[in-house]
Amino acid sequence: MKQFACFGLDTANQCLVRGRANLSLAPKPFAVLRYLVEHPGRLITHDELLDALWPETYVQPQVLRTYMLELRKVLGDDAGQPRFIQTLPKRGYRFVAQVTDGNGVHPDDMAGTLRPGTRSREIVGRDGELELLNSHLRQLEAGQRRVVFVTGEAGIGKTALMDAFCRQIDPSIAASAARGQCVQGVGGVEEYYPVTEALHQLCAGQGGQRAYRILARRAPAWLAQGRDETAPLTEERSGSKDRTLGDLCEALEDIAADSPLLLVFEDLHWADDSTLNLISALARRRAQTRLLVLATWCPLSGDLEDKLKRLKQDLLLRRLCVDMELGPLRKAAVAELIGRELDEPEPPAGLADFVYLRSEGNPLFVTAVVEHLIAHCFLVRNVDGRWERRAPFEEMQAGVPRQLAGMIEMEIGSLSEHEQHMLEAASLMRVAFPAWAVAAALQMDPLETEEACDALARRLHFVLRAGQDELPDGSRSAFYVLAHGLYREVLYQRQSEARRARRHVRIAERLGELFAGREADVARERAIHYEAAGDRDRAASVLQAAEIERQQAGICS
Questions:
Q1: Contact 177, 207 (CB under 8 A)
Q2: Domain that holds residue 196
Q3: Is 117 inside any structural domain?
Q4: 271-294: b (≥16 Cβ within 10 Å) or e
Q5: What is the pTM of this model?
Q6: Cα–Cα distance, 207 to 243 (Å, whole number)
Q7: How far is Cα 214 from Cα 217, in angstroms, rounded to an integer?
Q8: Co-location of 23 and 152 in the same domain
Q9: Which residues, 6+ apart, have CB-to-CB distance to 438 below 8 Å?
Q10: What pLDDT digit, counting tens, does each position of 23-55 carry?
């Protein structure tokens, strides 16, 4: 482990450590930081960094700016007075902090441990998150209600975390737990759908008779929502009145008065307004109670999700909730997950690295990639019954697992046709995509395109605004990144070859216009687009012209 200031760089587990905390970094920003830390005190040029991290691939240099911003945010560094990363304008970067070899302490040993009995055997790499949820559960002993939003992209493991947490609750505290599942399309037609499911579980589970009696006394109109309709009618139930939020909140608080009550609402991005209002009311009420509300949601798009964002932000500002974002798994956790999938403690050499980069630490993506490799016989069992790799990693890169391709297609298909075309155009760029390139590919107005890209970045979890770039004419254009390479592949492949070729040519031509008089600076990138369009002659011509220009410039100098 490399150490600098209060940080440790754990290259084995691909994570940054500060004190007892593990700071999550995506694979590429981590790779940038690692290269800087391993070459401290000297200038690292843009070209050196790009060649080291993206060999044989053209990447726009401005993408480094994006990663530097992210690293400075994590490190708490100031570009004006750098303690770690110094920018040398138009040249590159220098890592200025003193770097020493660490003492070999593993990040997990520094990060603290769960209390006895809480480590889950069925979930990988989430011990810190489980401990955080346990800390909220322990605070219920003082009568402090808690509302926790668990946020993360599709497949990141929100449901698995809820499952593991509910399983490991200490039986001695006699907590009751009920879960409600929001369902896509139901929120717009049926109020309180997940609440109905949770109430039914609450009344049918252990201690359900007590919950039923309290509901009968406090909120009789809600009893039909919490018990089988075949249950005998009581006098309280037959005389029920209209449902009100106040009645239900009081009943839930009474149920949680003596022993903790855990309510889990999953996929809240598909919830109806009434369910959101209930969570808002439970968070804002003042009475002491042992109530913990956990709500999982995935940043998608749409009116319901926008209302959820506003609710969460309002509660955060008032310190009435906690937002816990699930990040990608670390490399060590990915290796452990692969071992479980293969039922083999030590996967074939290099496989964990490959799957980690391919999946970017998303657990669903990890399992899908492994299944894809097995289905295509890239991974096979040998005569000894052990798994071995039967193809080079370059060949294993081809194709997107069917399960993930279908999921991504559904997500893209929910967007408007114009938004789909914009994302397809974005996929024509290798890493970062500037707004001007999308505008060129689709023959759109650049300013309108940038506004549309900003709107997508605000709404979609897989589109991120990365910064601004200054063009040769002095104008500025924002650029963005697709959070997952698998999204780019799906978007790229869903276009016909003719459409892709047309768009690649338009981008190449626009590059030539923007850099008129300086064509050699972008010759390689233009050649890549022409070659992708199938026009190898123009690609060769562009590169040849650039070489002649360089030779002439060398003679003149």
A1: no
A2: 125-325
A3: no
A4: bbeebbbbbbebbebeeebbbbbb
A5: 0.69
A6: 23
A7: 5
A8: no
A9: 422, 425, 426, 444, 449, 453
A10: 777 888 888 999 999 988 888 988 888 888 877
